[in-house]
Predict the 3D structure of the following.
Amino acid sequence: MGRIRILDDRLVNRIAAGEVVERPASVVKELIENSLDASARRIDVTLAGAGKRLIRVEDDGEGMDRDDALLALERHATSKLSALEDLEGISTLGFRGEALPSIAAVSRFLLRTAVEGGVGTEIDVRGGRILAVREVGLSRGTSIEVSSLFFNTPARRKFLKSDTTELAHIVRVVTRHALARPDLSLRCVHDERVILELPATADLGERIAQAFGTELRRTLLPLDTRREGIRVRGFVGRPADASSRRDAQHFFVNGRLVQDRVLSHAVIEAFGNTTPRDRHPAIFLLLELEPALVDVNVHPQKTEVRFARAGQIHDAVRDAIAACLGTAAAIPDRVPGARCAAAPGATRAVLRYLEVNERAPGGAGYDAPAAQGSPPPTPATDLTTSAETRAESVATPPAAVPLAQYLDSYIIAQDREGLLLVDQHAAHERVLFERFLAQAEENRIEVQRLLFPVVLELSPQERVILEQEASEFARLGFVLEPFGGDSARLEAIPALAAGLDPRELVRALLGEAVRARAAAAGIGELRRKLVTTAACQAAIKIHHRLTFEGMQRLLDDVFRASSPTTCPHGRPLVFRLTLAEIEKAFHRR
Ligand code: ADP
Ligand code: MG
């Protein structure tokens, strides 16, 4: 008795229909999905001519008996769905019974399949017409061979891109399935060359290393959280390692690779402004949740889903990533972006500095800035001081301890893992940004009245912006009153910005607001931009000597920040030289 049935019309009409076969990669995708649905443990993909000439997918899954094999080629024949209610909780990758007939209609198609202990069946199809059905000797599993794709639809064949492009699409499909299922053995051969060899592993990290190399794997941060029945696990890249490639982001929902705006948005929010807009952190996120909470029946190629409780899922993903980015592991341990080339040079620079310091015992001068003739601490320096910070740093041992300051600009510190080099300006920017933003968000900005209010001449554009965003400026602690004609009087500024030239600061903020307006930024983004600008101006600059206490406070504050590895503009603020790397440099290991 076969398992495959033809869906009734009512059900067919409820299924998102559309073109399934667009290019060789879509064939590979559908065939791999079928193999997975048949509980395959290993899948071999053989290609010739970037899949245009030949695609063969072989699996060791359940296989089909003769009747089922014939039925599988009919439209809307599936073993995975039978009643309307089933659409509510689909746990297989396929469900609409369209792939095999659609593929067979536009190719030369050879299906060979056998169930455990049964006799094998071979079906030869050409352009959708069955040419022959034979009995053959086969062991359990299925092999589907698709040659001369689109031989009978020249228009579609013409739309195919170069071999390189089509092959790249296929490799992406295979790789992504491999990531979704590390327990699967996958092999892909193209024109007789093995292009992917991915043995089964229990571990997603290991699979990532197989597919993308150990270097990427080493820099990824693991996460695994469970909340309200939603499990979020996988790996995310460190903000400082984000690249300009968008396709480094992978989302899987119950083992299905999806593109999804809710999930992408959660990532953007979690990374916030730890990464610049045009940089994309690597993401490997596996979501597991009840099938009933995911509607997979929204897209003909099944690459999009719709979530019930989307808000909850969004927040669970965002919080899981944000928590993971807040850990010390998020610190890159080499010069980001210029790894191989810059690391040895940077290593030498740090080592040279330490050597010099050895000869100047005690590192004299670092805790006595005034004696060195450097400027007295500006109010900006004091911004790192807060009563709570000091109280806490006594109670818990600091995560990072300052050793010295290099060129009055970079703090050299140590933590459990190695030496840290911290850009003091970027670090302070990060601290001020988060503090300022939190205060603004909770509407509790501390305001400082100006002794002498400042009158600002405004351009028409600035006046419009100030009128439109009056409440936003007020929320950030800037009290501005109309002052006749084109002027405004600045009466108060946020306490965090005390000591800055108020005129310059407001000018910079107005400029930022005009730009944000032009870019149609939402209020949240406008606020972050304004806060970024204010934090940048208020942060200690480079070439500014700090006391050891000041350095310790800054380190404490920055490593307590929610994104302690990049400044609000998205530039890295710290990198680490691990003990292992130091020992290697000295040939101690
Ligand atoms: P769907 O996957 O949506 O059910 P397909 O046209 O892709 O539709 O496949 C039709 C049916 O053929 C499947 O439901 C399944 O029963 C059977 N089938 C297809 N590929 C395989 C395979 N590799 N191993 C076992 N059965 C398969
Ligand atoms: Mg299918």
Remarks:
- Residues 480 and 490 are 5 Å apart (CA to CA).
- The chain has four domains: 9-196, 204-325, 340-427+544-585, 437-538.
- The first helix runs from residue 9 to 14.
